[in-house]
Amino acid sequence: MKVTQEKLPASQIGLEIEVPSEKSKQAYEQVIKQFAREINIPGFRKGKVPRQVLLQRIGHTRLKATALENLINDSLQKALEQEKIAAIGSFELAIEFEELLSKFDPEQPLTFTAKVDVEPEVKLAQYTGLELKAEEASYDEAQVDEVLAKYRSDKAALIPVEGRPAQLGDVALVDFSGRFADAPGGETPAEIPGGQAEDFQVELSENQFVPGFIQGMIGMNPGETREVSVQFPDEYSSEELAGKPAVFTITLKELKEKELPELDDDFAQEVSEFETLAELRASLETRFKGDQERKTSANKEKAILEALVQLVEVEIPETMLAREIDFLLNQQATQLKNYGIDINQLFTEANMGPMRERSRPEAIARLK
């Protein structure tokens, strides 16, 4: 089998593959035998269907298409092995399969051209004498107190609230429905995709949910319904919502407060393998100091990599780029879920193309 290589832009290699006529005929005959073994035609036993009957029932075009598909896949795989090319992803034919099929004659040699992605070649310009700045992380004792506070919060008992409205630190059970605050031409504002929920439990913490949502619930009493205005951040992960004002109709169904356990040796034994609170504190301090040392080291490595990226010349293949874009979109979907957004209403077929295109620059930067 004759194979001619051509180096293409974007880390691709073009392959012109010439398949001998005997291989074309062999692929076609194998397809006929395969169909003859598998097809059920009344009046004939499996494997005993006459060739002419098989051709009439299945059709010459379908047989040719199957043979051609098998021939292309097999020939391309052998060409990569023969030329010792480590391809990534799938191949792309130079012309449409249907056009190639119209020219395919099982009695004649087959010549086709395809291109494959390969690992990119990286060229690095002069890199000596670089001056870098990296942040040095420092240990803060408050980190230990924050962890212990979280442990206490996680172990807290939820006690129904009586005689007072909602305040920060409470845990609320709510129904809510969100809509955009504005609409063109005086139309009714549209509902926010995925911005509705029933029996949703939320802790009234300033860092929870969309800015303005929790603040708007402060002072509500169980059974009360309130409209709360919010503003999605400009850097919000969904561009459809980023920077947009919205209104949520919230019904407070239940309100509970946290009863925190005492911070003592018994508590330390419950949340860790240590016998005393002092031992637990010492362990956390050691862990955080180690984290800061590792973070400082990582900052130095990051500074070096960022400087080197500016000196790198590389053509990233589409296969690698597509995988990185998939990763970024999956990451974005996870963030949206954490905000309580129904991603099925955002990640639609119509939106995927523009979303992938907007993710390209970030994907390229990450891969470099």
What does this structure look like?
This protein has 368 residues and is α+β, with helices and mostly antiparallel strands. Helix content is 42%, strand content 23%. It starts with a strand and ends with a helix. The mean pLDDT is 88. It is built from ten helices and eleven strands. The radius of gyration is 32 Å and the shape is elongated. It has three domains: 2-119, Alpha-Beta Plaits (2-Layer Sandwich), CATH 3.30.70.1050; 158-259, Roll (Chitinase A, domain 3), CATH 3.10.50.40; 265-367, no CATH class. Strands 6, 7, 8, 9 and 10 form a five-stranded antiparallel beta sheet that branches.
Key words describing this protein structure:
42% helix, 10 helices, 11 strands, 3 domains, 4-stranded antiparallel beta sheet, 368 residues, Alpha-Beta Plaits, 5-stranded antiparallel beta sheet, Chitinase A, domain 3, alpha+beta
Could you outline the blueprint of secondary structure elements for this entry?
Layout: E1 2-8, E2 12-19, H1 21-38, H2 51-58, H3 60-83, E3 87-93, H4 97-103, E4 110-118, E5 123-124, H5 142-154, E6 157-160, E7 171-180, E8 191-203, H6 213-217, E9 225-231, E10 245-259, H7 265-271, H8 277-309, E11 312-313, H9 318-338, H10 349-367
Antiparallel strand pairs: 1-2, 2-4, 3-4, 5-11, 6-10, 7-8, 7-10, 9-10
Helix pairs in contact: 1-3, 5-8, 7-8, 9-10
